[in-house]
Specification:
20% strand; Peptidase_S1_PA_chymotrypsin; 7-stranded antiparallel β-sheet; single chain; Cpn60/GroEL/TCP-1; Peptidase_S1_PA; alpha+beta; chaperone
Length: 749
């Protein structure tokens, strides 16, 4: 005899409320996540007044009684002083006025006051058929966070109230966004309101969205009546808007455009960087990623405010940083151009162009623009115009120009804080620029290193010259510890084998477990007489080189083998040494000997080695002591002089181009005329951005008559002797950095 097994829990569970339905965890999470991105807290003069939510790009819907309808049914006055705060959360440690993404309300587009039988709101007019809504334009679409910030669809579609659970999202006095589910919802007899229970609301909840289980917008919450809360069906609001002057605007939101990762963040940082174009000023007020005003003076300061934005913004920041690392100027131009290129390319991709097609066209156009700029560059014998373009301080620009001419295009020029109010005459000292930078990755984080430029500045460092010697490095560890106890710094110049840059001795110096890591620079082996580079450095610093044939054992190394430098500046690409504990008489003897040996040299390799040795031993550094009226102003003024000095030296090396964005604007003449492929069109539009931001006018839309660079074309190069000038190296470097940012972005699309 057998019997059927009962179904599991068959007699224990039941559907007690058919309209409640059943929803998966994933669907619930999607509804909540959408509300978190779309719903905002509305403030007026810093105080909570209501809730609002996105119904289109930079379009927000809220309750009519939340705005000043007594000042008009449309225009700027009803929303004056109001701000929408997205992503607001408790527990941030910030006051309400500083948390979240803040976007001003700028214009009331369409509205309707409450109906005469609605709950009364003090000072708010009422009309018989009122719908209590306000459709508002925001200053901009709120920037994206981890995903595109989309919007609810305000559709003129009927919803069957009473057929399922509704969700109400709102901001109350508790500051954190709230969520509630209704337990009962019914439409009123006239169909113009929907009432629901199970939702607790407080002041500030009005204007929140009422959403179905499927995530569709169905009503606008606007108040309560005794024991129930009440909303306005959004179908009625949509019909009212579609019958008014903004019908086309609302219809444009029904089919949301493809979301792109570039979003508005790139535009925001491009605009902020653009405010810094031109001569360097003390401070400039720009708008940060959340629309907040911030005071900045450099591209680095702007980057600090945008550092937590989306990845395309990181590419713009990296373009700026690359210029400060390589040249020391042009960071703002690179960032503005990178932002414009990404924005224009993104717009073409959103319009249907394939990212690969845009990338290929843009790469070819940028190469043509670069070649045109290179042909436009003119030799520079006097960098005064370039220095004056970098700073509005004419006296400082003239002092920098004099120092740059003294140092020459490849010499060492440093701007240091002076001891007086005036910028003093340049001071010459022995100094050399070595074509080698950081050898170990640890040194980029060492004391004295600027994390933005990865440039390490060491004052009065000890210098250790290390050849291809062998040893266990224990003595170096002791020496390193002793220097650290003194509070000093150690610079290691190592001529190790490039194939094995981290032998035992270097590992002994570069192990962070033993304390602060010294700055290590690897001097590559050179053709010619063995060890001539280390011998030159020994003469300049007074150090004794530890090599296999020096007779000195690394295991016994102590302070007697160390040299000194007055100043060392190490970057990723080069190393500058200024002054040192050298013997002037010994250096003069070596210079005379090297010249005599060069006259007798019988091979090109030997002559090249002796030429390099003579260049190092005879090189001079120029230091410009910069003055200021106050101690507080001195760092900024010194940095300003340093920027102008780098630009001036770059001009001496590479020549000049028309300044003020004109060179990039005129580079469009090197592109094929007329509408071409999407990538070329994007580059053509972006090249005019620096000029547009500097002058406040749109660039001329004149194209040359042919694809070649035509000297008679309106966009062709013109004489810029009387206008501002930029170093060609800076403009070309900015174009290269921006091109790299665009290529990296298009690889991610």
């Amino acid at each position: 005899m057998t019997s059927a097994a009962p179904a599991p829990d068959g007699g224990l569970e039941a559907v007690t409320r058919p309209t409640a339905g059943m929803q998966s965890v994933q669907d619930s999470q999607a509804v909540l996540a959408a509300a978190a991105r779309r719903v905002a807290r509305l403030e007026r003069d810093g105080a909570l007044v209501a809730t609002g939510f996105l119904v289109g790009p930079a379009l927000l819907l809220t309750a009519g009684h939340a705005v000043r309808l007594d000042l008009g049914a449309s225009g700027a006055a009803p929303v004056a002083g109001m701000v929408a705060v997205f992503d607001h959360r408790d527990g941030t440690g910030l006051p309400p006025a500083e948390g979240g993404v803040r976007v001003p309300l700028v214009e009331l587009l369409d509205s309707s006051p409450p109906a005469t039988d609605d709950p009364e709101a003090p000072g708010v007019p009422r009309v018989p058929d009122g719908l209590d809504f306000a459709l508002v334009r925001l200053a901009r679409h709120p920037r994206d966070t981890d995903r595109p910030r989309d919007h609810y669809l305000l559709l003129p579609e009927e919803y069957a109230f009473g057929s399922g659970v509704l969700h109400v999202f709102h901001h109350s006095q508790r500051r954190a966004p709230d969520h509630a589910q209704t337990t009962y919802d019914r439409r009123t007899a006239d169909g113009r309101r929907v009432r629901y229970r199970g939702t607790n609301t407080l002041q500030g909840s009005s204007g929140g969205p009422v959403v179905s289980d499927g995530g569709a917008l169905v009503a606008l919450h606007h108040g309560h009546r005794t024991t129930v809360n009440e909303g306005v069906p959004t179908r009625l609001i949509a019909e009212r808007v579609l019958a008014g002057p903004h019908a086309a605007l609302l219809r444009g939101t029904f089919a949301p455009p493809p979301t792109r990762p570039a979003s508005t963040g790139v535009t925001a940082i491009g605009r902020a960087m653009g405010a810094l174009l031109g001569p360097w000023r003390a401070y400039t007020t720009v708008y940060g990623p959340a629309g907040e005003p911030v005071r900045v003076a450099t591209a680095r300061a702007v980057a600090e405010h945008f550092r937590h934005s989306e990845p395309p913004v990181d590419l713009v920041i990296e373009a700026a940083r690359a210029m400060d690392v390589r040249v020391g100027d042009g960071a703002v131009t690179a960032a503005v151009l990178a932002a414009a290129l990404i924005r224009e390319a993104d717009a073409r991709c959103a319009a249907g162009a394939a990212p690969g097609e845009v990338a290929r066209g843009a790469a070819a156009a940028l190469q043509r623009a670069r070649a045109g700029l290179a042909r436009l560059a003119r030799p520079c014998a006097h960098p005064g115009a370039v220095a004056r373009a970098a700073t509005a301080d004419r006296r400082l620009a003239d002092a920098v120009t004099e120092a740059a001419l003294l140092a020459g295009p490849d010499g060492v020029l440093l701007c240091e804080p002076g001891a007086t109010r005036d910028t003093e005459a340049p001071v010459q000292r022995p100094g050399v620029r070595l074509p080698a930078g950081h050898a170990l990755p640890f040194t980029a984080d060492a004391p004295g290193t600027d994390p933005w430029t990865r440039r390490t500045r060491l004052v009065r460092p000890y210098v250790l010259l290390l050849g291809p010697a062998t040893g266990d490095g224990e003595a170096f560890r002791r020496l390193r510890g002793r220097i650290g106890t003194e509070g000093g710094s150690l610079l290691v110049l190592a001529a190790a084998d490039p194939a094995d840059p981290r032998g035992a001795l270097l590992r002994g110096l570069g192990d962070p477990a033993d304390g602060p890591v010294p700055t290590v620079v690897r001097i590559d082996a050179a053709p010619g007489p063995h060890g001539h580079r280390l011998r030159s450095l020994a003469l300049l610093t007074g150090a004794t080189a530890l090599t296999e044939d020096s007779g000195l054992l690394p295991g016994t190394a102590w302070f007697d083998v160390l040299g000194r430098a007055d100043l060392a500046v190490v970057s990723d690409a080069d190393t500058v040494l200024v002054g040192g504990a050298h013997d002037p008489a010994a250096r003069r003897r070596w210079i005379a000997s090297a010249r005599a040996r060069r006259a007798l040299a019988d091979s090109d390799a030997e002559r090249a080695a002796l030429d390099e040795q003579l260049a190092w031993l005879t090189s001079r550094s120029v230091t410009l002591p910069v003055g200021a009226d106050t101690a507080a102003e001195l760092p900024r003024r010194t940095a300003l002089a340093e920027r102008a000095a780098r630009s001036a030296r770059a001009a001496l090396r590479s020549g000049t181009l028309p300044g003020g964005g004109l060179a990039l604007l005129r580079a469009r003449a090197a592109l094929p005329p007329g509408p071409t492929d999407p990538g070329t069109d994007a580059v053509r539009a972006a090249l005019g951005e620096p000029h547009r931001l500097l002058t406040g006018t749109a660039p001329p839309a004149v194209e040359p008559p042919s694809g070649a660079w035509d000297e008679d074309a309106p966009d062709a190069p013109q004489d810029a002797a009387d206008g501002p000038e930029d170093a060609a190296e800076v403009v070309l470097g900015a174009l290269d950095a921006a091109s790299a940012a665009l290529a990296a972005y298009l690889r991610t699309v």
